[in-house]
Amino acid sequence: MRGSPLLQALLLAVVLALAGIPVWSLTRPHAHAEPARSSKTEPGMTAADLIVTSTAEAEVELALSGTTIWQGRPAAPRFEAALSLPPDAELVARVRWARSGTSAARFQVSRDGEQLADVTLWGDTEATDVLSVSPRPPAP
């Protein structure tokens, strides 16, 4: 075998240290999203839970009939919120990522444990799409 054993050991230590950086990043504690708060529902509206998970820090906005009903600020990779929605709703979701490059944001809307919508938006710095939220018909 060629080379100095001391140099080989030093090179191995450097490689292991570099491999440890992603592991440290994934396993260290992160700031938790603020828990969902209960909100009073208006007549004809029902409570729904929203979870937004993004691959990068983002600002999120939801609109219903042209009116902003929820904003997730400051920029964070995860949001949770309690919303008051009609039984069937068309929400316009807008995501603005803090960094450029392809990113994704997953929107999950549920009501009483039933998944109503599960949509992923992809984009470079911003993405906008419509989320259709409606109860699923019972299985036959």
Give the structure's gist in a few sentences.
The chain is an alpha+beta fold and 140 residues long. It has one helix and six strands; from the N terminus they run αββββββ.
Question: Your description of this structure?
Answer:
- There is one protein chain.
- This protein has 140 residues and is of the alpha+beta class.
- It has a domain at 46-133: Lipoxygenase-1.
- 16% of the residues lie in helices and 53% in strands.
- The protein has 1 helix and 6 strands; from the N terminus they run αββββββ.
- Strands 1, 2, 3, 4, 5 and 6 form a 6-stranded antiparallel beta sheet that branches.
- The radius of gyration is 22 Å and the shape is elongated.
- It starts with a helix and ends in a 7-residue tail after the last strand.
User: Shape from CA axes?
Assistant: elongated
Oligomer: single chain
Q: What's the order of the H and E elements?
A: HEEEEEE
How many strand segments? 6
Largest sheet features: 6 strands, antiparallel
Low-confidence stretches: none
**What integer value in Å does the Rg equal?**
22 Å
| Tally of individual helices | 1
> What is the level 1 CATH name of the domain at 46-133?
Mainly Beta
* Secondary-structure class: alpha+beta
| Percent strand | over 45%
Percent in helix:
10-25%
Named at the architecture level, the CATH assignment of the domain at 46-133 is Sandwich
Distance between the termini: 70 Å
What's the pLDDT, averaged over the residues? 82
Please render the helix and strand layout as text.
Layout: H1 5-27, E1 46-64, E2 67-85, E3 89-97, E4 103-111, E5 114-123, E6 126-133
Antiparallel strand pairs: 1-2, 1-3, 1-4, 3-6, 4-5
